[in-house]
Design brief:
single chain, 405 residues, 2 domains, 6-stranded mixed β-sheet, 5 helices, elongated
């Protein structure tokens, strides 16, 4: 489930039925003596004479949410906007529900009354009008591969030819211009091939972008401009139909990836803020791999932890020059129906390709080496499908589908 953070936190509210026991309202200074603001014989408790809920009415679409705020007025005329207790109820949960924080969720088309009741029985109400929202976002196409262009080979031209015949957004998964990500590598190796689709490319930085000759990946950021994010960060996000897409920088020795780092903190805030029903993330170095050349990369484990917590669906990587698909799994590599499906798609054109270890990683479901092409993701409203598009002359078949959490 995706986490939701209401704009106004009404501390310690609790939902229940109208007959639930009354709960204390916002206390004043505990040292205060009993005064005219006391109620029901309790010291330092303000007497509430009215509760006003806003907005009124609440207009919300089916499946969407809205936050209701409270203004509580005491008998002295003071107004408090954050009472520490109230009982929240709805007249028709089949139309709209309400949480203990006053968050209303539209369930079906119709009208309901939402009530907040103070400890002394005073209550306020708002009308909730639930309607059908706009039609689901149109299906979107994401085309993904990494480890792409080298002037001494032709496979990058062959994969660029695949892109020529496909509409959609391109996720370039790092190591885009060999050997060193220099300005010359981008202009003479990448630009004549995948550069034909630069205007629709959203890249992630690989380790060859941060080479010894380019420790800040300046040519990469200069080539892609704002599409690559802030040059001091290299991480950003965007929406694609019903999907929230997160692009991260796995060059962790340059841009920290650890829990509590600026990037990991940004990631959690970004995931908490999205209202999209589906989440896909991509970066260069795979967390899990059966490659004979590379091992599981623990430095990006904080990415997986955050993405799993917020119900992400798909992770895409490159780095290993091969193809590998994992089944749904959690950050501990346990099969999990609520887990993340990882694709390693290092098939963009770089050769030679890597092999696989004799001991395959848990949950690895499909592997191939010596093949080149682009993975086509069809991203729907709560659904996704994948279909590998091989270069001309190859016939690797790999496809499937899934649903968002």
């Amino acid at each position: 489930m995706k986490s939701f953070r209401p704009l106004l936190l009404l501390a310690a509210l609790s939902c229940g039925d109208p007959g639930a026991p009354a709960k204390p309202l916002l206390p004043v200074d505990p040292a205060a003596a009993r005064g005219p603001d006391a109620e029901d014989g309790r010291v330092g408790v303000r007497a509430i004479v009215s509760l006003v809920l806003s907005p009124n009415p609440v207009n919300v679409n089916v499946g969407a949410t809205a936050t209701v705020s409270v203004a509580a007025t005491s008998h002295t005329g003071a107004v408090y906007t954050n009472p520490s207790a109230a009982t929240w109820t709805t007249s028709n949960a089949a139309v709209a529900t309400v949480s203990s924080l006053g968050v209303v969720t539209g369930v079906s088309v119709g009208t309901a009354q939402v009530r907040a009741t103070a400890a002394n029985g005073v209550y306020g109400e708002t009308t909730v009008n639930v309607s059908n929202g706009p039609p689901p976002p149109a299906t979107q196409t994401l085309l993904a591969a990494g480890d792409i262009a080298m002037c001494t080979g032709t496979f990058d031209e062959a994969t660029a030819n695949v892109l020529d015949a496909q509409a959609g957004t391109i996720a370039a998964l790092g190591d885009l211009a060999y050997p060193s990500g220099t300005a010359t590598d981008f202009s003479t190796c990448y630009d004549p091939t995948w550069g034909r689709h630069k205007s629709r490319t959203r890249p992630a930085a690989g380790n060859h972008e941060y080479s010894t000759s380019n420790p800040t990946a300046a040519p990469y950021y200069a080539y892609f401009g704002s599409a690559a994010g802030n040059p001091s960060q290299g991480y950003y996000s965007y929406d694609l139909g019903a999907w929230h897409i997160v692009v991260l920088n796995s060059n962790c020795s340059v841009v920290a990836c650890a829990a509590g780092s600026a990037q990991e903190t940004w990631l959690r805030a970004d995931l908490a803020a999205t209202t999209q029903p589906c989440i896909l993330a991509y970066w260069h170095h795979p967390r899990f791999t059966s490659s004979s050349r590379y091992s599981n990369d623990a430095s990006v484990a904080p990415f997986w932890a955050a993405l799993y917590q917020y119900g992400a669906d798909i992770v895409l990587n490159g780095h290993a020059h091969q193809y590998e698909r994992f089944g749904l799994q959690n950050p501990s590599q346990q099969a999990d129906a609520n887990g993340i499906r990882q694709f390693t798609i290092g098939t963009g054109g770089r050769s030679p390709q890597d092999g696989f270890r004799s001991t395959i990683q848990p949950n690895s479901q499909r592997r191939a080496t010596g093949i080149y092409g682009v993975m086509k993701f069809t991203l729907g409203n709560g659904t996704y499908a994948w279909n590998f598009l091989p270069i001309a002359g190859q016939s690797f078949t790999e496809n499937g589908s899934g649903t968002c959490h």
